Amino acid sequence: MTLEALVARLSYYSDLGDGDRAQLLALGGKVRPFAANSEIISAGEPMDAVLVMREGWAARFKELEDGRRQILNILLPGDIFDLQVLVAAEADHGVVTVTSGSLYAIAPHAVRDLLAGSGALTTAFWWTQVQEEAFLREQIVRNGRQTAQERIGHLLLELHRRAQIVNLAGEDVLRLPMTQTQIADTLGLTPIHTNRVLRRLVREGYIETNRQWIRFLDADALAAMCGFDPSYFHLDAFRMRLG
């Protein structure tokens, strides 16, 4: 197994030469398969690897003592998580799978050595963290200030754009494997309210749905309604080529 998904993701943010690509692929890493709806990281447990999504969807979350759950962000193929293992010993959040799939587990020392030896790769890893922080800022604003309809529209457009980057979505179609409960836990809503808003978005002509598929009928109007501006993705980073 190789780390092609990671190579593709990092190539957005820095000019990677053949040597850089070879170093990434040489990281190896063990493939860990997972079933849907399984917890692959628990808050407070020791961490022993840098993890990279290989296939499937997962979600970072924090859980309150009474069982209420807040999903912090969604993880797609090529996403790196648990870089905190480089500086911390325990996970401060959990990760639960949304679908079945697999991930790569890479030894922390291998990542440290890699970043110490390549400026282009260090730049690329840095840009992925800049983008992740931007996603979290949008999540804070989305849940703190937007209406329920704006939140759902904004999240759908964000997930669609992210899925396009890793070739998991068409121009106007997104396969969305999240349940309405998971969407609700992401946006601080109830599942019932989430269902009502999704049906309203269909009635108002923004989207149509078919099981786990979303088709955007008027993405521009939806973006205007919910204030979606993809500039926070920092995709212009690949044009800056700081590496």
Describe what this molecule looks like in 3D.
The protein is an alpha+beta fold. Helices cover 43% and strands 21% of the residues. It contains nine helices and eleven strands. It has helices spanning 4-10, 18-26, 108-117, 119-145, 148-165, 180-187, 191-203, 219-226, 237-240; strands spanning 30-34, 39-41, 50-55, 58-63, 69-75, 80-81, 94-97, 101-106, 173-175, 207-210, 213-216. Strand 10 and strand 11 form a beta hairpin. Helix 5 (148-165) packs across helix 7 (191-203) and helix 5 (148-165) crosses helix 8. The longest helix is centred in the middle third of the chain and has 27 residues, at 119-145. The protein is globular and about 55 Å long.
How do the helices and strands line up, and which of them pair or pack?
Elements: H1 4-10, H2 18-26, E1 30-34, E2 39-41, E3 50-55, E4 58-63, E5 69-75, E6 80-81, E7 94-97, E8 101-106, H3 108-117, H4 119-145, H5 148-165, E9 173-175, H6 180-187, H7 191-203, E10 207-210, E11 213-216, H8 219-226, H9 237-240
Antiparallel strand pairs: 1-8, 2-7, 3-6, 3-8, 4-5, 4-7, 9-11, 10-11
Q: How far apart are the termini?
A: 27 Å
Tally the helices: 9
Unreliable segments of 5+ consecutive residues: 239-243
- Strand residues, percent: 15-25%
Oligomeric composition of the shown chains: single chain
**Order of strands in the sheet with the most strands?**
1-8-3-6
How confident overall, as mean pLDDT? 89
| Overall 3D form | globular
Helix amount, in percent? 40-55%
Number of strands: 11
Rg over C-alpha atoms, rounded to the nearest angstrom: 18 Å
- Topology as a string of helices (H) and strands (E): HHEEEEEEEEHHHEHHEEHH
